[in-house]
Amino acid sequence: MEYRNVTGHIYDIQGYAVHDGPGIRTTVYTKGCPLRCLWCHSPESQRHEFELGYLPIKCLGTELCKNACVDACPEGAISKNEPVQALDGSGLIQKISVDREKCTSCLKCTAVCISKALYSAGRDTTVDEVYERVIKDVGFFRNGGGITISGGEAMAQFEFTLNLAKRLKNDEIHICLDTTGFAPAEHYGEILPFVDLFLYDIKHMDSAMHRRLTGVPNELILSNARYIAEQGGALQIRVPVIPKLTDSDANLRATAEFCASLPREAVKLVQLLPYHKSGRMKYERLGWKYKLTNVEPPDEAVMLKVLEMFQSYGLNSQLH
Ligand code: SF4
Ligand code: SF4
Description:
Elements: E1 7-17, E2 25-30, E3 51-54, H1 68-72, E4 78-80, E5 84-85, E6 92-93, E7 96-98, H2 108-112, E8 118-121, E9 123-126, H3 127-134, E10 146-150, H4 158-169, E11 175-179, H5 185-191, E12 197-201, H6 207-214, H7 219-230, E13 235-241, H8 249-261, E14 267-274, H9 280-286, H10 300-312, E15 317-319
Helix pairs in contact: 3-4
């Protein structure tokens, strides 16, 4: 199959992924997404542009580094903190702070930071480069495993995602495409022959509420789900259960009804995703505010009731 070695923006590639589709997988995380979900677990994936990340735990202190990052910053955005005890008990060290108002994401400081405490969230790559990396993992793909192209929204870099899928399909690798559904229908039609399973979120059935929670309405997402299903695509639908935001009985029932209205053979699985807090630390690394500070994960009993309700519609459903 012909493909083009186009460039793309990614922010990570992770092996041994067990939550990104069937079996053991390697996941390619693309950068850039048209949605802004309040509970987003990967804020580093949202913007298409590269940006500065800072992991204080890795900072060695300015004395050891001879002020390298402070001096490298043309904007004066990096300053030294008050001295603190080093974790290894070797004495006082001065870690740094980044003034996000001044930072222009030029990334010059990342070039001098030997410990990678300062790092670029995102990098340029090509279809061939990603292929060469992920193909090394083929021996680990068990129980229907393979490659998942995720994000961000991989369809926002359509040429890159399409050509990567084509390149991988030449090796008959099982491909999952993790998508918000917020992309032109014709793009889904074009990529469909190269995708074995679409991991597809249905976040809220009310369009105005969907816009409040994610920044975009839901009509395109719902119509694309139907389009993919009617064109013979396979869907693993994922439903986030976020207390007070998506967990009303009316919304979850409407979601189950929608899933049940799709061609039955297309909906392989409905996964119910309980809200969790694991992405919060990532917001700090980017200097962003996490908005759902008052939301707690739902109880297991609540999730089991939701599961029962989805199963009552005859849907193959499970808790994530
Ligand atoms: S951020 Fe990096 S370069 Fe700056 S003091 Fe810490 S380890 Fe050194
Ligand atoms: S990325 Fe920000 S903090 Fe780093 S050198 Fe550029 S302006 Fe300064």
